[in-house]
Structure prediction request, 151 residues.
Amino acid sequence: KRRVQEQFPEAKKQVRQLRCAKGLIDLLVVDALEATEGRLRELQPMSVDEVRGAGEQIVELSAAGRGKMAELEDFLMGNVYQHRQVRQAQKRAGEELRYLFAAYVKEPMLLPEGYRERIAEQGRQRAACDYMAGMTDRFCREVYEGLRVKR
Prediction:
């Protein structure tokens, strides 16, 4: 974060956040590449079959990289994944998904034709699930809000 602030002092907060994320990814990718290169030098496989038969992990982070990754995961768990706003958004999204699923199962005519055609063979639940699996978050919210207004 300090490095990004020094490199981009006038950048907006969102740009700095993206740069921090990119920096973390770069750090971990470089670590994985260097650790993997070391493992390959150590094992000296001469074929794909030797790589497959190595009996141990070849592509991995270094011990230091694994430590940094664990630290990052702890930070994310405590500050992002369990953040009050994130939990509220997850709860709301779950409610919306349950509502849409129930609506599609109860009223399959709400599904697009291609998904309705699958019902005879796969069942209403599978057709509804498959349709919903392809929805973006934004589209799901729009459909949910549209259905709630109609009912």
In short: Residues 13-43 form the longest helix (31 residues). The mean pLDDT is 93. The two ends are 48 Å apart (CA to CA).
